[in-house]
Specification:
Chain lengths: ~450, ~325
């Protein structure tokens, strides 16, 4: 995660892009949350990292003062590349006193160079030498100068010669190389140090005017590209079928109108229709567990946990955070969770675990005013249900016309797993559950 | 001391030894007028056609005659015009010369030298470029030498002539005029079975023989100067018997070994050297043993591109050495 570096005579720890997940080789710096000169404690968030899987916050590995930001916002950096330099207070004072370039001997946090793939692969010669001198290779602070951070025989010999621990304090000469000017200029750009995210300016897309004025190009962000890939995979692999049902939610509307203000005062979150829908869906899934399954070619895997993926849109993308074990929550609990995930999503603070494990997706398309939509299944789930706009319509009830609050529920289903009959029954059950909510329903 | 070309060193060894020892004579195709590669140039004028003996184009006969003469007490030096043509003589060399001492329960011996100019010089293609040392390598009873410098060439030639058993003397054609060096006046030998450290170093060990020694030395020089990589270069000089002690000592020095030869990789000298190291000193190895050898294709091509692809060069050697150093 870090190595020592010396810039402008101030030795510091280079904070590098961590290896966030198996397949990730790079990350894009979203926002810097610190500026040069800021004091940070260990684990303080210093910037946002955007990857094609997740947007995450980068904690500081050390305590100290940020001296240089090396990667601009919106710029991609490879795993292992330094993001910024953080110097200990002592070094700064030192550097201030004597302008002469310090050689880093005083570095408080002696960092081991190279956390490469070969770091823990030891050659017979290295093992033999270590055994002979009683060195524990996994614990000793030996710099690996070989391929991918491998500890070479010479590294061990140098370590022994230097008398062990002392060796680590000497910064690698290679690490002392100066960083090119354009990167250090970054320090002059004003950087927010408080407040979160997204809302004040559209985040990534760089718009370039090229190829004449009749068209322009927008960079595909990592998230856009992940969405594209997932959508394609879903449509390519899953034979989608589609069905829709109409639900009379007049009683639910009355219920909500009656309790929503009180609920907000008590809970601090809005009581949305979505919470009721989720409750209704969870109940129906319990009756038809096959809805909660995955196609596995020679078998169908039915999931016991009902983890509802919730499609949440932001300005430029859509995420599907997951309400885990939704069947164990009451309406109030669901409302609270919906609120929390939506806020996290809009703030760009979702973690990997917030997004994984979904078994069935609900999409609140009504929020955009839609009354009919045809969702793409959230691969590899079996179905995706949309909740459309609630609209007042004249409805025939017992040969009389009444004005009722009506809503459409649309369901896309994996036709390899599900058929019309089971989906019809499932939707019917969701409908019954929704229509059964009335002013006597208990939210808790 | 005199500055001498590799070819001149070989010639002077034969020339001097013929002057010292009446039993020594050379035979081969066109050796009378100096041979196609000029190794025996001027020798007929001094020693006459009976000691600088032209033969028919029959390598089997050249080797066979030499064996017969040796058993009769002579010390023949048989020249195979190009190592590429040695194959008709392999039965004589492997089944006769190499086995005479063993077969006769030590009553007979076969003190012959078979000179085989080998390796590619450029434009020679398949009948003038081959490296057949691996064909003979591993034949008990046979000694094989392959000098890389003028000094070693003369010293090993004298040692080979005086050796009581058959010696295959591989001389790299690219060294003939391309390599020269100081050679002492008068009589000296380079002992058969002794490798030589041509350059001391501490980061990687290069083990090689023949022309590639020079590529390795040039690459080592450049790497030291440009990148601070220090290379230890061992010239095997004798391919059979291999100087195990020297190989192990050189390999142990750095724990990182690169073996280079122009002959094919599969079943080449490098395979045996590598096996010796793996058997004897696994726990001193700091990196997988590397080999840089000719590819396993029948022979070097005529076109410059295929030649370049096939043959080792300073650049290829340097690249291999660097990647081993960085491992």
């Amino acid at each position: 995660m870090s190595e020592t570096k010396t810039i402008d005579g101030i030795p510091g720890v280079a904070v590098t892009v961590p290896h966030l997940a198996e397949s990730l080789v790079s990350a894009t710096v979203g926002k810097w949350l610190v500026s040069p000169g800021d004091y940070v404690k260990q684990y303080d968030v210093i910037c946002e990292l955007i990857t094609e899987k997740v947007t995450t916050e980068m904690p500081s590995p050390v305590e100290g003062v940020v001296t240089h930001l090396l990667v601009k916002e919106g710029t991609e950096a490879a795993v292992g590349e330094p993001l910024c330099i953080i110097a200990g207070q002592a070094e700064l004072a030192e550097a201030g006193k004597a302008k002469a370039p310090a050689d880093g001997q005083a570095a408080e946090v002696p960092a081991i160079k190279g956390g490469g793939a070969m770091r823990n692969r030891y050659s017979p010669a290295v093992q033999a030498l270590a055994a002979e001198h009683g060195i524990r290779l996994d614990e000793a602070r030996i710099e690996g100068t070989g391929f991918e951070g491998r500890i070479t025989r010479k590294d061990v010999l140098a370590y022994i010669e230097s008398g062990g621990a002392k060796a680590n304090l000497e910064p690698k000469r290679a690490a002392a190389e100066t960083v090119t000017a354009p990167e250090t200029q970054e320090a002059e750009v004003p950087v927010r140090s408080t407040g979160l995210h997204l809302s004040d300016e559209p985040r990534i897309p760089k718009i370039e005017v090229e190829g004449g004025d009749r068209e322009y190009f927008i960079d595909v962000t990592p998230i856009r590209s992940t969405i594209a890939r997932n959508m394609r995979q879903s449509v390519a692999e899953i034979p989608h079928a589609w069905t829709m049902i109409e639900v009379d939610v007049t009683n639910l509307v009355n219920l909500r109108n009656k309790v929503k203000n009180e609920f907000y005062q008590r809970e601090g979150v809005n009581l949305t229709y979505l919470a009721f829908l989720l409750k209704a869906v969870v109940g129906a899934i319990k009756d038809y567990p096959i809805m909660n399954s995955v196609w596995a070619v020679d078998k169908i895997i039915v999931k016991r946990d009902i983890n509802l993926s919730l499609a949440v849109g932001t300005e430029d993308s859509v995420f599907t955070p997951v309400i885990k074990q939704a069947d164990r929550k009451n309406i109030a609990g669901l409302a609270r969770e919906i609120d929390e995930l939506a806020k996290k999503t809009r703030a760009g603070k979702l973690t990997m675990s917030d997004m994984s494990g979904g078994t069935f997706t609900v999409n609140n398309t009504g929020a955009f005013g839609s009354i009919l939509s045809q969702p793409i299944i959230n691969y590899p789930q079996a179905a995706n249900l949309t909740f459309e706009s609630i609209v007042k319509r004249p409805v025939v009830i017992k040969d009389m016309i009444g004005v009722r609050s009506m809503v459409n529920l649309c369901l896309s289903l994996d036709h390899r797993i599900l058929d019309g009959v089971i989906c019809g029954r499932f939707l019917q059950r969701v409908k019954e559950n929704l229509e059964s909510f009335d002013e006597s329903t208990n939210l808790y | 001391m005199a500055l001498m070309k590799y070819l001149e060193a070989i010639r002077s060894a034969m020339h001097e030894e013929m002057g010292r020892d009446d039993r020594v004579f050379v035979l081969g195709e066109d050796v009378g007028k100096g041979g196609v590669l000029n190794a025996t140039k001027g020798m007929r004028d001094v020693y006459g056609p009976e000691r600088v003996l032209d033969t028919p184009l029959a390598e089997s006969a050249i080797a066979g005659v030499a064996i017969g003469a040796a058993m009769h007490g002579m010390r023949p030096i048989a020249e195979i015009q190009f190592a590429d043509f040695i194959f008709p003589a392999t039965n004589q060399i492997i089944s006769e010369a190499a086995k005479i001492r063993y077969r006769s329960n030590n009553d007979w011996s076969c003190p012959i030298v078979i000179r085989a100019p080998y390796g590619a010089t450029g434009g020679g293609a398949l009948y003038h470029s081959q490296c057949p040392e691996s064909v003979f390598f591993g034949t008990p009873g046979l000694k094989i030498v392959a000098p890389s410098t003028a000094y070693d060439a003369k010293g090993l030639m004298l040692a080979a002539i005086r050796d009581p058993d058959p010696v295959l003397y591989f001389e790299h054609k690219k060294c003939y005029l391309g390599v020269s060096g100081e050679v002492p006046d008068g009589d000296y030998i380079v002992p058969i079975g002794k490798a030589d450290v041509k350059r001391e170093g501490k980061d990687i060990t290069v083990i090689t023989y023949g022309m590639t020694v020079h590529y390795a030395l040039a690459a080592a020089e450049q790497l030291e100067e440009e990148e601070g990589i220090s290379s230890h270069v061992l010239d095997l000089r004798t391919l059979q018997p291999l100087d195990k002690e020297a190989i192990l000592a050189a390999a142990k020095k750095t724990g990182k070994v690169l073996i280079i030869h122009e002959d094919n990789k599969t079943g080449g000298i490098g395979a045996e050297v590598s096996a010796i190291i793996a058997e004897e000193m696994l726990y001193d190895l700091d990196a997988p043993i590397m080999r840089l050898c000719g590819p396993d294709v029948p022979a070097v091509g005529t076109s410059p591109t295929t030649e370049k692809f096939f043959l080792p060069s300073t650049d290829k050697v340097k690249q291999a050495m660097r990647s081993l150093a960085l491992y």
